[in-house]
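Re: the 356-residue chain
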Amino acid sequence: MKTNKKELGKEQNTKIESEKTENNKSIETDEKNSTTIEGKKTSLDDLSPKSKKFAKIYNAVRFLVIIAAGVALIYASYSLTESYLNYKDDEKKYASLNDMFVQDAKGNTGSDSSAGLNGNKALNNSEVSDSNSTANSTNSNTSNTGSSTTSSNSSSSDTLNYSADSKKWVWNYDAMLKYNDEAKGYIKLDGTRIQYPIFEHSDNKYYLKHGADKIYNGAGAIFIDYRTAGLEGDMCILYGHNMLDGSMFKEIMNFRDKDFCKKHPTFDIYIGRKHYIYYVFSVFSGKDVDEKIYQYGFENKSDFQSWIDRVYSKSTYKFDTRKPTTDDKIIMCSTCVDDYGNRQLVCMYRGEEVVD
């Protein structure tokens, strides 16, 4: 009996081991034939018709997402390339426009004003004897009275004698009007790319998307807020885009830097046929919805003085200039900082007139 029990125990153990081996083989087979759905392994054979349909939809959606991502990448690359080409085209146009005001020793300009921008050879700015550097240096040493006195001495490089192979920049308002009849003047900041004509339209939208040649252009142009009294009013607002390539009013952002403020205390502003030095007295950031800053007219002198006091106190840099009065003509340059209504502002008052 004892022998039979031992043999029976051995047979049972052998049977159990055999079953374990078969189960392991079955598990391995199931793993090979399984698929993952929503993080769970499921046998393909055990998938219900509904689950099979879900798997097909999942794979189709994944494929479409990959295709959409590829299309988005191609579109982004195209947009960047198009923007770059537009920037370069805009740069060439304004360089050629600047060429219209460059004269040699005989008084010949670099291009015919009636020819427009196309086909004109752009001059390198280093070839031009910039009128600003000497004028600004001279004016910074004068007393900042702000009165419109005429500076007729020869300190301005526009009035210096120059050799036959040199060139100088001479503002020609009549030529600018032939090019664009909405031209009102020109703005220059020495040592920067801010060298652009100023325009005014019947609304503020047009020159947001049109260049100096009135052709559609995302860079737009420098323009006057039509709601103000213009460059001869008490306070005029000028707008320009903050372009990624450094053009238009991008360098207005540099007035956040103290060293830049110190090196650039004045602008050259051409209004009609006249040339003035404007002195910066306040730079700060503000909101485009701030009606206390963006005012388009003043009821009286007291109202104007309150505005002057307000913007003067906001300046992030103390300029070596006097505080303007209600007798001054003021220009406020505005450019966007971001898409949330933040703006960088530069306020300046009219100083002396320069005779070129």
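The chain has six helices and 14 strands.
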